[in-house]
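Sample intake sheet
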Amino acid sequence: MKKLIAIGAIGLAAISGAVLTACGSAEGSPILQSDAKAKPLYLDLTHEIPTFAPLASDPAKPDLTQPHAHSQPVPSFFRQVALQPSENHFDDGHFYRSYMTIAEHFGTHIDAPAHYVNVPGTVEADATLPRRFQNQLTLADLTGPIVLVDIGQRVQAQLDKNGGTPSPQKTVMDFSEASPNNVTAQDIAAVADKLQNGSWIVVNTGWSRFYKGGDLATSPYINGWNFPGVSGSAIEALIALEKQKGIRINGIAIDNIGIDSGEGQAGHDASFTGHIYASHVRGLQRGWKFIENATNLASIASAKADSCTLIAGALPLVIGSGSPARVIAICEK
């Protein structure tokens, strides 16, 4: 279910803004229920989207030799964004507008539950079926209280072993599934009392600083599939906690290319075989949504504890499996 969408650049901003406005008025928002004298803190958790002129031979494909402004390729499973500006002239000036081709799962984006299609053997008894597409997500799906899980210090300790630079060698820094340098079951237990219906678990790893390099084989962001994420044991603990408390979280947001650890995505030998993408396999079938390639997540810790609401301004694409999103947090200082 990996596909490209072509939309107007102005339309993306307008529709995202409309969703943000609507979400901001949703009932039950902790921000709206807070003291009217409290000063709100607005945090942007979104990477900017670099764009490139289209190829002369195919306007749907980017010409990486012709970046717009300071654009540089960023890590993605999909090609970079092609954007073709145009002008619509009138006697007193003109409208500037653009045609853009972008993948659903490019940049900071949200995964809808329909993103992963299980085989019969991996559908679990408590799966929420049928899976919902992007246009079927409600405003309540796109907003909710933030529960912060911050493993940034553990990740930094690993980076410090290599002078602060990522190393793909697990003998140098270890983000394998068995390591304690991912989100663990203990991390989930530590926030258990904060989780409620509609919570968004926001995972700060500090990895977003390496968001550069369009070649996945050489990008420090991918780091040879050796990067932190949410371990399978953490997902198991979260599922058990949902059952125990009788709740359903909204989803997980993270500052990396996927919710799973690098090894969880690519497998032990980076061959993409075996039981991989455990977070996607188990979470999406429960109706969770995932926000990937977020940034600035450490800033949430500067806000008043447990005061932040996440809002994802995502496009309601018909049969869409995801959407680029402007993700923000509204908090109390």
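Comment: Residues 192 and 202 are 14 Å apart (CA to CA). Confidence is low (pLDDT under 50) at residues 1-34.
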